[in-house]
């Protein structure tokens, strides 16, 4: 699977379950109604956070945010509110999930379904809020064990 390029997002949960996690197992499921899915290991803190909160935020990462993506992927980072100290974010208007400043786009989702599959769960979220950055930017990709830039093609 390392030969499959994916986008990079940071998933977040607000409130009593405050947590963030870098993910690349994320995709659109439906446009009508809008829904997305993410796959989370049963052993990940985010697994219980999403299950407990019933909602999650998604920040679609800009190439300039590689450092932030690496931070939220680091298992040695602090947990809970401490992991957001020094990180520029705002609480999402619909779920309160942290939405990271500088991202290309943001989604807020209410958990609608969850399915176990091997050592992961597939969480499907109905999109309740969506916005995109006005700055544009290039997407951050993950491919072959590393981060890469996705440059926009001329239109």
- Tally of helical segments: 2
Based on CA atoms alone, the radius of gyration comes out at 15 Å
Which residues form runs of ≥5 with pLDDT under 50?
none
Mean residue pLDDT: 94
Query: Tell me about the biggest sheet?
Result: 7 strands, antiparallel
> Got a strand count?
12
End-to-end C-alpha gap: 30 Å
| Shape, principal axes of CA atoms | globular
| Percentage of residues in DSSP E strands | over 45%
Q: Share of helix among residues?
A: 10-25%
What does this structure look like?
The protein contains 2 helices and 12 strands, in the order βββββαβαββββββ. With 155 residues, it is mostly beta strands. The chain has a 7-stranded antiparallel β-sheet with strand order 3-2-6-9-10-5-4. Strands 1-11-12 form a 3-stranded antiparallel β-sheet, with no helix packed on it. It has a two-stranded antiparallel ribbon with strand order 7-8. The longest helix has 9 residues, at 45-53. The radius of gyration is 15 Å and the shape is globular.
Give keywords:
155 residues, mainly beta, 12 strands, globular, 2 helices
Quick recap of the structure?
The chain contains two helices and twelve strands, in the order βββββαβαββββββ. With 155 residues, the chain is mostly beta strands.
């Amino acid at each position: 699977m390392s030969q499959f390029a994916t986008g990079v997002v940071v998933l977040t949960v607000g409130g009593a379950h405050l947590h963030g996690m870098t993910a690349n197992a994320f995709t659109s499921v439906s446009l009508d109604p809008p829904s997305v899915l993410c796959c989370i290991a049963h052993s990940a803190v985010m697994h219980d956070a999403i299950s407990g909160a019933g909602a999650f935020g998604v920040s679609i990462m800009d190439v300039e945010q590689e450092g932030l993506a690496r931070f939220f992927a680091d298992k040695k980072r602090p947990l809970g509110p401490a992991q957001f100290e020094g990180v520029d974010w705002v609480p999402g208007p619909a779920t309160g999930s942290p939405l990271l400043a500088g991202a290309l786009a943001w989604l807020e989702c209410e958990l609608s379904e969850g399915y176990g599959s091997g050592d992961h769960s597939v969480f499907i979220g109905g999109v309740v809020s969506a916005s995109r950055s006005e700055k544009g930017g290039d997407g951050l990709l993950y491919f072959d064990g590393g981060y890469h830039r996705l440059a926009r093609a001329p239109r």
